[in-house]
């Protein structure tokens, strides 16, 4: 028999080492307020994506950029290049930069710029939140809309006013917490299919996110609150492959259209050219993209968006103890295509879509 007096153990915080207060969302916003030009970028960006999902805008939206942000200077360099490319192809493609600060891990690993901005296990989440917001603000002021994965349910209070498109990742699409959070987000939200390739979890998520929810969250002052949401009518599916198989091909897309129709959902499909759709081989991403453009030019109208993992330089690198060893502009998470390949692929896509998309409707 265990004698509770002899053991004299604590029943609370048994596995918690420490807790530290963070600046509240309000404090971070006060240091880095939304400017008028940034607000314009976000409002126009969200409206463009919503109109694409509503079929008023015939363009294709493309979420493109690094798998994760770890170096602010390289992210700025990439953003400047992408902005110029976005302006060039804007008649057919609406470009949104992937600015992913939170990484879901299969087991363990670096969890992104917000969690560990110095990449040295110092976990300065306070600095991560501040610097993530500062970077998003810069990009919005440049007129470049941004996309991110919403992973921690508290993070959106710090940064979501600067975001145009949000992803719920393959590992969290089935999570009630993430569906609730997404039901209150102000952006269109793409739900990835499960890592096993399962569509049902994402389709269930689309039903859930469209509904109002009440759940635990924090307000701008950082107080625990009951958050009551309206439901998000711009939830949609992102096909990322899974279970060792891709799902970007025309048969998979047709099966997905049927599953959406059977569930009474609009036929809005975004395809992630990376992850299980490219077997994490960056060289395959442009082949996937090419196949998707073929499907569109041959008349497909359910493919509304695409995702590509791209960086300044090709591939990825291991995060080691000495961050000064890192190569510039190379991913420290999944492998990406380089800038030259990106530019070529986006220009080719824009050219092929010219004249292949329906007229704009109002
Ligand atoms: O997009 C990035 C990764 O695929 C995701 O974070 C999972 O990474 P991991 O399997 O290396 O942990
Ligand atoms: C983690 C990601 O993707 P998925 O959720 O599809 O694995 C990602 O896009 O960074």
From TrEMBL:
<dbReference type="GO" id="GO:0042802">
    <property type="term" value="F:identical protein binding"/>
</dbReference>
<keyword id="KW-0028">Amino-acid biosynthesis</keyword>
<comment type="function">
    <text>Stereospecific condensation of phosphoenolpyruvate (PEP) and D-erythrose-4-phosphate (E4P) giving rise to 3-deoxy-D-arabino-heptulosonate-7-phosphate (DAHP).</text>
</comment>
<dbReference type="InterPro" id="IPR006219">
    <property type="entry name" value="DAHP_synth_1"/>
</dbReference>
<dbReference type="GO" id="GO:0009423">
    <property type="term" value="P:chorismate biosynthetic process"/>
</dbReference>
<comment type="similarity">
    <text>Belongs to the class-I DAHP synthase family.</text>
</comment>
<comment type="pathway">
    <text>Metabolic intermediate biosynthesis; chorismate biosynthesis; chorismate from D-erythrose 4-phosphate and phosphoenolpyruvate: step 1/7.</text>
</comment>
<dbReference type="GO" id="GO:0009073">
    <property type="term" value="P:aromatic amino acid family biosynthetic process"/>
</dbReference>
<dbReference type="GO" id="GO:0005737">
    <property type="term" value="C:cytoplasm"/>
</dbReference>
<dbReference type="InterPro" id="IPR006218">
    <property type="entry name" value="DAHP1/KDSA"/>
</dbReference>
<dbReference type="Pfam" id="PF00793">
    <property type="entry name" value="DAHP_synth_1"/>
</dbReference>
<dbReference type="GO" id="GO:0008652">
    <property type="term" value="P:amino acid biosynthetic process"/>
</dbReference>
<feature type="domain" description="DAHP synthetase I/KDSA">
    <location>
        <begin position="51"/>
        <end position="345"/>
    </location>
</feature>
<protein>
    <recommendedName>
        <fullName>Phospho-2-dehydro-3-deoxyheptonate aldolase</fullName>
        <ecNumber>2.5.1.54</ecNumber>
    </recommendedName>
</protein>
<keyword id="KW-0808">Transferase</keyword>
<dbReference type="InterPro" id="IPR013785">
    <property type="entry name" value="Aldolase_TIM"/>
</dbReference>
<keyword id="KW-0057">Aromatic amino acid biosynthesis</keyword>
<dbReference type="GO" id="GO:0003849">
    <property type="term" value="F:3-deoxy-7-phosphoheptulonate synthase activity"/>
</dbReference>
């Amino acid at each position: 028999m265990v004698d509770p007096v002899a053991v004299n153990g604590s029943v609370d915080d048994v596995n918690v080492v420490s807790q530290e207060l963070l600046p509240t969302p309000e404090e971070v916003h006060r240091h880095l307020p939304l400017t008028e030009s940034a607000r314009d970028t976000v409002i126009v960006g969200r409206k463009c994506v919503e109109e694409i999902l509503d079929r008023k805008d015939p363009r294709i939206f493309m979420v493109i950029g690094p798998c994760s942000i770890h170096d602010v200077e390289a992210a700025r360099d990439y953003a400047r290049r992408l902005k110029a490319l976005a302006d060039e192809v804007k008649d057919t493609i609406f470009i949104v930069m992937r600015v992913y600060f939170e990484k879901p891990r299969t087991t363990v690993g670096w969890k992104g710029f917000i969690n560990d901005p110095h990449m040295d296990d110092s976990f300065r989440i306070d600095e991560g939140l501040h610097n993530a917001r500062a970077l998003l603000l810069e990009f919005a002021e440049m007129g470049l809309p941004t996309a991110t994965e919403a992973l921690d349910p508290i993070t959106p209070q710090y940064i979501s006013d600067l975001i145009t498109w949000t992803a719920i990742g393959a590992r969290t699409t089935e999570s009630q917490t993430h569906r609730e959070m997404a039901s209150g987000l102000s952006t269109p939200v793409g739900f990835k299919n499960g890592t096993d390739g399962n569509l049902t979890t994402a389709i269930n998520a689309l039903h859930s996110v469209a509904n109002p929810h009440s759940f635990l969250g924090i307000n701008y002052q950082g107080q625990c609150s009951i958050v009551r949401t309206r439901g998000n009518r711009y939830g949609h599916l992102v096909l990322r492959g899974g279970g060792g198989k891709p799902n970007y091909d025309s048969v998979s897309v047709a099966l997905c259209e049927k599953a959406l129709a059977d569930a009474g959902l609009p036929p809005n499909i975004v395809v992630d050219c990376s992850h299980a759709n490219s077997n994490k081989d960056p060289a395959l991403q442009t082949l996937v993209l090419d196949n998707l453009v073929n499907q569109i030019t041959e008349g497909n109208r359910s493919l509304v968006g695409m995702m590509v993992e791209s960086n300044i330089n090709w591939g990825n690198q291991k995060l080691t103890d000495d961050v000064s060893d890192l190569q510039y502009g190379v991913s420290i998470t999944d492998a990406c295509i380089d800038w030259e390949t990106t530019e070529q692929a986006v220009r080719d896509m824009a050219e092929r879509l010219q004249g292949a998309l329906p007229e704009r409707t109002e």
